[in-house]
Write a structure and sequence with these properties.
It is a single chain. By secondary structure, the protein is of the alpha+beta class. It has four helices and four strands. The protein has a four-stranded mixed sheet with strand order 1-2-3-4, covered by helices on one side. Helix 1 packs antiparallel against helix 2 and helix 3 packs across helix 4. The two termini are 39 Å apart.
């Protein structure tokens, strides 16, 4: 018995009032359309990026060494990359090396009447290169950017904490983007 027929019988059963309404017909149509879409996706070779065994999983990331990153938020970015990718923080016997160069920019975005800045936008840009350690040749590269903001308050310490938090959030966002880019790369080559 096909799914659409089963659902149609369910919706026209006495427990549904014994009548087929437009709402029930629409529900049957939606479920049928979803089933057809799932069949079409599976037939064309679609694989979810994070599915087990898809090539974009974390198994390949354990062979990536994340090099130390210069710049103030580099420490946060490196730790986020190691955590997200389950990568190694030791260079020995790693198949790949990931080198990241950071650029940051701080720009005032809100001014008061006396020209004092009350809010800053913090833009962080990362250029990265993944190198195959066996051949010493780059296999992929890219760029990721993030934009965070923080408020300037009367307490300098609170403002400093807000600035550090914005840097950390930016580094975490970039780490997720780099991981996604590398997942797509590894899924294509596997």
């Amino acid at each position: 018995m096909n799914l659409t027929k089963l659902l149609a019988e369910t919706f026209t059963s006495p427990s549904w009032g014994g009548r087929k309404t437009a709402v029930h017909s629409a529900a049957v149509f939606r479920v049928g359309a979803l089933a057809v879409a799932a069949l079409l996706l599976s037939a064309c070779g679609f694989r979810p990026l994070y599915a087990h065994g898809s090539g974009g999983g974390s198994a390949v990331f354990t062979s990536v060494y994340v090099e130390p990153i210069d710049a103030e938020p580099g420490y946060e970015l490196r730790n986020s990359l190691i955590d997200l990718m389950d990568a190694s923080n030791r260079r020995a016997n790693m198949r790949y090396s990931l080198k990241v160069v950071l650029h940051d920019q701080l720009q005032g975005s809100a001014l008061q009447n006396d020209a004092s800045i009350t809010r800053y936008n913090y833009r962080l840009t990362a250029d990265y290169v993944l190198t195959d350690n066996n051949t010493n040749k780059p296999v992929t590269n890219g760029q990721a950017a993030s934009l965070t903001a923080y408020n300037v308050v009367s307490s300098p310490y609170s403002t400093l904490i807000a600035q550090k938090d914005a840097q950390k959030r930016g580094a975490e966002e970039i780490a997720e983007r780099i991981r996604l880019d590398l997942s797509v790369y590894f899924a294509r080559v596997r």
